[in-house]
Design a protein that fits this description.
Length: 232
């Protein structure tokens, strides 16, 4: 029971964080749950530490979603123009009027027209791959524009991820320097001031007194006048 409560709280936090910067910029018909799942996975992988990291995670999620959207739209663009490529290919296999009629029937899903087209393609040693290639050639300029937009979206996403890594590297480097400075300050030895010893004045006086007594004794031992032995 406690585990379910913990998971429920985690989901509430995710929803709250997902709405931190407002409603996701999704087009009508796009899946909000899929976008939120993408955002959640990015947040779990990056583990944002502050609001700046959260902002970059939101940007990465949107740019990744935008790339997927552009790829999907390019595919839909090709599908929407398949009739042009089909008609161009059929005109090489049958009269133009018949090719136009078959193409119109194929567009609405007419099974008889589809069978006829498959027979014509097989007779010409072709397939729907040739139709797809011809369709791409018909709208190559538009497809190239989509490719450029996709490349730009990917470049912006990658630049955002690099900036996030660079910011984290700078913060980590600053943290290491601060830690090293603190450790150096804690282990620095402070030398205690040296106290000069006072000269032994008393000992000098005593020695001087002893020397004076010895000198006086030496003086007393000298006779003040010559002895009789010396006179003789």
């Amino acid at each position: 029971m406690a585990k379910k409560s913990k998971n429920r709280n985690r989901k509430n936090v995710i929803v709250a964080n997902a709405s931190m910067f407002g409603v996701p910029p999704l087009l009508e018909g796009e899946d909000f749950k899929a976008y939120n799942a993408l955002l959640t996975k990015l947040r779990d992988a990056v583990k944002p530490a502050d609001v700046i990291d959260e902002m970059w995670v939101e940007d990465c999620a949107y740019l990744f979603w935008d790339t997927l959207r552009l790829r999907r739209q390019k595919t839909e663009l090709i599908k929407a123009n398949m009739y042009r490529g089909l008609q161009t290919v059929l005109e090489t296999l049958c009269p133009q009027r018949e090719a136009s009629d078959l193409t119109s029937s194929w567009s609405v899903g007419d099974e008889e027209a589809i069978d006829t087209i498959n027979e014509l393609l097989e007779a010409g040693n072709l397939s729907m791959k040739a139709v797809e290639a011809q369709t791409l050639a018909e709208i190559i300029d538009k497809v190239e524009r989509f490719d450029r937009m996709i490349a730009m979206s990917e470049a912006r996403r990658n630049a955002t991820m690099r900036e996030m890594d660079r910011r984290r590297s700078v913060l980590a480097h600053a943290m290491r320097e601060a830690t090293d400075n603190i450790e150096d300050a804690e282990f620095t030895e402070i030398e205690s001031p040296q106290i000069e010893a006072e000269p032994p004045e008393l000992e000098t006086e005593e020695v001087t007194a002893d020397e004076s007594v010895q000198e006086s004794d030496d003086v007393e031992q000298e006779p003040p006048y010559p002895t009789s032995e010396a006179a003789e």
